[in-house]
Write a structure and sequence with these properties.
alpha+beta; Alpha-D-Glucose-1,6-Bisphosphate, Chain A, domain 4; 10-stranded mixed sheet; 5 helices; 24% helix; START domain-containing protein 10; lipid-binding; START_lipid-bd_dom; lipid transport; START-like_dom_sf
Length: 268
């Protein structure tokens, strides 16, 4: 599976993500607890499932959730798995390219990514979408495995009380991990990610008041977007030669019933 081409997203691209978020056909519910539901879907010609998380944040506005997901300075405060993040540049005011690397639970190796992010605000909702691209100045970092995000997206909807956040993701972690384990761990980890996001949203207004409160280039790019344009010639798709490291002994880890997310709530 190769990465997508870096390009300006069109309305049809956003509509595809919106439909995946809102359409229930083909999705199987695997977790439900309080305000969080996790579903999976098998994807043709892929060993890895697409996952969808649906969450209600009754005490968070859609604007705050949208800002938290955009604000890279704040992410470093709440995402403990983040190793490095770097903005590479913009394609246009609603599409950028960035690099980031993430730690994981031992013995899984860290993964890194070059991602195109695309976002759209409408009268009824907000979308933030991502997929892997390449950039010749950002090959896989030493000690990391370059993973591929085939598609991910957040759909954020304002509700009478709070907001609804729908997240989809279809990724290939690369390396040498058992497929069954990747699919299993994803189901267990997804509720944790949503809970962390909710907690981050609750703390964001106070944090933002002390950290450039008016700086929101994702909403006012004409006034605040100061990144250089990305040279798309440097973003041609490429397959990297990477050391294949056997991580299959991760099966000895506790992905397990001791997890604080009550794995017994998962439906096999």
């Amino acid at each position: 599976m190769r990465v997508n081409v870096a390009r300006v997203w069109e309305d049809s691209d956003y509509e595809k993500v919106r439909n995946l978020c809102e359409d229930n056909d083909g999705w199987v519910e695997v977790y439900k607890k309080k305000d969080i539901t996790i579903c999976t879907q098998n994807i043709e010609n892929s060993s890895y499932q697409m996952i969808k998380a649906i969450a209600l944040f009754p005490d968070v506005s859609a604007v705050v959730a949208y800002d938290v997901l955009h604000d890279s300075a704040y992410r470093a405060k709440w995402d403990k798995y983040m190793i490095k993040q770097e903005n590479i540049g913009i394609i246009n005011p609603n599409n950028d390219v960035c690099y980031y690397s993430l730690n994981s639970v031992a013995p899984i190796r860290p993964r890194d990514f070059v991602m195109q992010r695309s976002w759209l605000e409408t009268d009824k909702d907000r979308l933030i979408c991502s997929h892997s691209v390449c950039h010749e100045d950002y090959p896989p970092a030493k000690g990391c495995i370059r993973a591929t995000v085939l598609l991910s997206g957040y759909l954020i909807k304002e509700k009478e009380q709070g907001c609804e956040v729908i997240y989809i993701s279809h990724s290939d972690p690369k390396g040498k991990l058992p497929t069954w384990l990747v699919n299993r761990v994803t189901k267990v980890v997804a509720p944790k990610v949503i809970k962390k996001l909710h907690k981050a949203c609750l703390g964001y207004p106070e944090w933002k008041e002390k950290h450039h409160p008016t700086w929101k280039p994702w909403s006012v790019p004409e006034q605040q977007m100061d990144l250089a344009r990305v040279d798309l010639i440097k973003c041609q798709p490429k397959d990297y030669d990477q050391e294949i490291i056997d991580e299959s002994n991760i099966s000895a880890m506790s992905v397990s019933t001791k997890d604080d997310e009550d794995e017994d709530s998962l439906k096999n």
